[in-house]
Write a structure and sequence with these properties.
Layout lengths: L1 H25 L3 H11 L9 E12 L2 E10 L4 E13 L5 E8 L5 E3 L3 E10 L5 E11 L5 E12 L5 E11 L12 E3 L5 E9 L5 E11 L6 E6 L4 E3 L4 E8 L6 E11 L2 E2 L4 E7 L5 E7 L9 E9 L18 E9 L10 E4 L5 E6 L7 E9 L2 E9 L4 H11 L1 H38 L2 H16 L3 E7 L17 E2 L32 E4 L3 E5 L1 E9 L3 E3 L3 E12 L5 E8 L8 E9 L4 E10 L6 E13 L11 E12 L8 E2 L5 E2 L11 E3 L1 E3 L11 E7 L10 E5 L4 E4 L2 E4 L4 E2 L6 E2 L8 E3 L1 E2 L3 E3 L2 E7 L7 E7 L9
Parallel strand pairs: 10-18, 31-37, 39-43, 47-52
Antiparallel strand pairs: 1-2, 2-6, 3-4, 3-5, 3-7, 7-8, 9-11, 11-15, 12-13, 12-14, 12-16, 16-17, 16-18, 19-20, 20-23, 21-22, 21-24, 24-25, 26-30, 27-29, 28-29, 30-32, 32-35, 33-34, 33-36, 36-37, 38-40, 41-42, 42-43, 44-45, 46-48, 49-51, 50-51, 51-52
Helix pairs in contact: 1-4, 4-5
Length: about 800
């Protein structure tokens, strides 16, 4: 019996060891491999590695797109990254025309090394965009340097009504014959005049007078908007006119390089695609392209390495028309602050411009955990440029702290990681292991093996359906244990004792105030033995699906629960929602803003959804959970901590998808017809179900909806001819009555052949009773008319 048990234990240990080694192998970090490869290739220098990942476009309405993507950074911390959208079209001659561009300057990105940030854009394309285009998603900095980009083919269903500015398009200067490229960057003096010349087509359907509108952006279109102006003079465009149009570009007030966006507006509404022209207004100027810190947190006594990339006057370049501008006494002012208390982490740095070439070393005089850097450039006391670097709170540091203060949570995270990255391997090895154990049980009749078999099977199945995650209040780090409260979710140890009657408790005046002995259970934070405090709010969330596989049409139940600890009894709001198909649009509450003000309080809820209409395949349900210290009405909009996770499921046994298709009713009818001829749809169902039959001279449209997840048809159209039209081969033609031409009623000596009919076709010309006669036969069923001319020959006098 002992030998049996030893064999079983040995077998189990071997399998567990094998699984552990496999998981470690699967967890190999590709980023480490990339860095090692870069070290070995010393010839390659990479200044940034920003990527767009998992980008997708979802069409919300005809010209409204939702763009989802992740931004990934594999190198040093970067700030001041800006994302934008460009829509272009390709002409038959392969030339590219910019149709719209939108930059989201209000949401600049600061991203750390090895961090990934999820972003969502709602892009509202102009009404005039109609047809197929190419959409570019780009990430740049203020200088216009492209860090990442990705393109998508898109199709819009706008009205196509616009004043289109296209190629050729160039700049000219008054008094010069030379044509300049839009992106050339012409340097201009304040007394010069510059013109934009573009081929322009009026597709507005009417003659119209319009004023141009100008927006000036510092350095590039991704830079700061400096000013905007309306043109002084209106420009008149005839209906359907196309020509090279010339307008004056006003010069900005401040010396700098600019991207100028030029559009035409009508009654305050943009009615043209934009033109972007790059020009330089000469004078003293500089630009700070980027600010980069080597770390996102510092302790007192450390040195912060600030990289400042800057350039001198914008008009100082080879080939500049104006020769360039010099600087007399340029210098930098640099301040670094902690965002928590807005206190300077070091004395203000004042450095000559010649000293700022690359890194600036700053000795920190206090701890600086969320640094913000402000850099100002001055020339003879005049501020020429200012730029700020803000490092957002680090999620990576928080994860590190979680592991240090909560051993149980660390184990759960390791398990979740293992199952997430290795479940395929586990299932295969586990299946082999179970078959072996089953054989062993049949042969040896071991009850111990049977119990292990059941437990192991339960673990394999159960882990695929439920997830647990714990959120901690945002930690704020204090230089001493009894400092004043600076954040909503982190308090010094002095307030964790008798003051608020909350736990755990560390005596702020005790001998072990800053030692390992002060790390009490899960809720006290210690960083490098120097900073101590406790969380006010800790919430553990659990979410699950009741099944991982269903037949099409079955019901799935999503469940969520949360156990919250509000340590100091001063209020906490909890929320959790589910998106059944992870579409980010259809969200349903599981826990609807539950409010607690004590410890160990649980809330739960569920939502059931049908898979009717789903296509067969794999899906993810997304769970979103959050909390806010205090009371809020909607924790999804105002939160301290937020998290999310996915649970997958499979839909099977689906009916065959049927794509909608228009029926024979989608045709052209005579003016006398009153009903549809045949079915509205040859496949699918009509929407609307009973469209009205078109009136004479009009059309009616409907759509044939797909079934069982099939696609809907393009619009189906029925057209009815007007009362003065005739139907021929499914086409409506205007009925044209015959009309006599200029020859009718005139006199001819010979048979006439020209000017017989103004409308219709003429018959043969005949002669009778001293007159020429013919008929003009109408077209498409039109009536005929008789026409005639006299025969008269001029008198010819002859002599014998």
């Amino acid at each position: 019996m002992k030998k049996k048990i030893i064999r079983i234990i040995g077998l189990v240990c071997f399998c567990q060891l094998f699984l552990f080694i496999s998981a470690k192998a699967l967890a190999e970090d590709p980023k480490e491999l990339l860095e090692e490869s870069l070290k070995q290739n010393s010839k390659v220098v990479i200044i940034a590695d920003i990527n767009i990942r998992n980008a997708e476009i979802k069409k919300v309405e005809k010209n409204n797109l939702k763009i989802l993507f992740n931004v990934e950074n594999l190198m040093a911390t970067r700030s001041g990254l800006i994302y934008g959208v460009e829509v272009v079209k390709e002409n038959p001659d392969k030339s590219i025309v910019l149709m719209d561009e939108e930059v989201f300057r209000e949401d600049p990105l600061a991203i750390r090394k090895n961090e990934s940030i999820h972003k969502e854009i709602n892009y509202f394309a102009p009404e005039y965009l109609s047809g197929k285009f190419l959409l570019w998603l780009k990430i740049k900095d203020e200088s216009g340097l492209v860090f990442a980009q990705q393109s998508f083919p898109v199709e819009f269903a706008g009205n196509g009504i616009l004043l289109e500015q296209s190629n050729p398009c160039y700049l000219t200067i008054e008094g010069e014959e030379k044509k300049y490229n839009l992106a050339e960057g012409i340097s201009l003096k304040k007394d010069e005049r510059i013109f934009l010349n573009c081929y322009t087509q009026n597709n507005l359907g009417e003659g119209v007078s319009l004023k141009p509108y100008f927006e000036f952006y510092r350095r590039t279109f991704y830079g700061l908007k400096m000013e905007e102006r309306e043109g002084e003079n209106e420009v008149y465009f005839k209906k359907d006119e196309d020509r090279i149009n010339q307008i004056i570009i006003p010069l900005p007030k401040v010396s700098q390089a600019y991207d100028v966006k030029i559009v035409f507006r009508k009654e305050g509404k943009i009615v043209s695609n934009p033109i972007i022209a790059h020009l330089v207004f000469s004078g003293k100027s500089i630009s700070i392209n980027s600010l980069t810190l080597d770390k996102d947190q510092y302790f007192k006594g450390e040195i912060a390495h600030l990289e400042v990339l800057w350039f001198g006057p914008a008009d100082s370049f080879r080939g500049s028309r104006t020769g360039g501008s010099g600087l007399v006494d340029p210098f930098f002012e640099i301040e670094i602050k902690d965002q928590n208390d807005s206190m300077l982490c070091a004395s203000k740095q004042v450095k000559k411009a010649s000293e700022v070439r690359g890194n600036v070393d700053i000795l920190l005089e206090k701890d600086c955990f969320e640094p913000a850097v402000n850099v100002r450039f001055l020339e003879e006391g005049q501020l020429l440029y200012e730029k700020t670097l803000i490092i957002q709170p680090s999620l990576n540091l928080e994860e590190k702290l979680k592991k240090e203060i909560n051993l149980n949570q660390e184990k759960n995270q390791d398990k979740n990681f293992f199952w997430k990255n290795s479940k395929g391997l586990i299932l295969v090895i586990g299946l082999v292991f179970l078959i072996f154990l089953f054989w062993f049980f049949i042969k040896k009749r071991s009850i111990l093996v049977l119990v292990f078999l059941l437990v192991y099977s339960f673990l394999l199945v159960g882990k695929t359906r439920a997830v647990t995650a714990t959120l901690y209040g945002t930690p704020f780090y204090l230089s001493v244990a009894y400092s004043n409260l600076v954040g909503a979710n982190f308090v010094p140890l002095s307030t964790c004792g008798d003051t608020y009657s909350c736990y755990p408790y560390c005596d702020p005046n005790g001998a072990h105030r800053i030692t390992d002995n002060c790390l009490i259970n899960s809720y006290v934070v210690r960083v490098d033995g120097r900073f101590i405090g406790c969380y006010q709010d800790i919430v553990s969330f659990n979410y699950s699906l009741n099944t991982s596989e269903v037949n099409q049409g079955d019901i799935i139940q999503a469940s969520g629960s949360a156990t919250g600890d509000n340590m100091c009894n001063n209020g906490l709001t909890i929320g959790m929602a589910v998106s059944p198909k992870n579409d980010g649009v259809n969200l349903y509450w599981l826990i609807n803003n539950a409010y607690i003000n004590t410890q160990n309080v649980s809330s739960s809820g569920s939502y059931s959804f049908s898979t009717a209409g789903y296509s067969c395949g794999n899906y993810n349900s997304a769970f979103y959970y959050a909390f806010k210290h205090g009371y809020v009405s909607d924790v999804t909009r105002d939160y301290d901590r937020i998290g999310s996770g996915l649970i997958g499921y499979t839909v099977k046994n689906c009916a065959v998808p049927i794509n909608g298709a228009c029926g024979p009713a989608a045709t052209t009818y005579s003016s006398t017809a009153t009903t549809f001829s045949g079915a509205l749809c040859s496949a699918g169902t009509a929407d609307p179900a009973s469209p009205a039959f078109p009136n004479p001279g009009s059309s009616t449209a409907w759509t044939c909806l797909g079934q069982n997840g099939g696609n809907s048809s393009p619009p189906c159209t029925a057209t009815r001819c007007n009362i003065n039209q005739i139907l021929i081969s499914e086409m409506c033609y205007d009925i044209i009555n015959g009309e006599c031409g200029d020859a009718d009623g005139e006199a001819f000596c010979a048979k006439p052949s020209d000017g017989l009919c103004d409308k219709g076709n003429s018959t043969l010309v005949t002669f009778s009773n001293n007159k020429w006669s013919w008929n003009c036969i109408g077209l498409f069923g039109g009536g005929k008319v008789s026409c005639s001319a006299r025969k008269e020959c001029p008198w010819v006098e002859t002599t014998n």
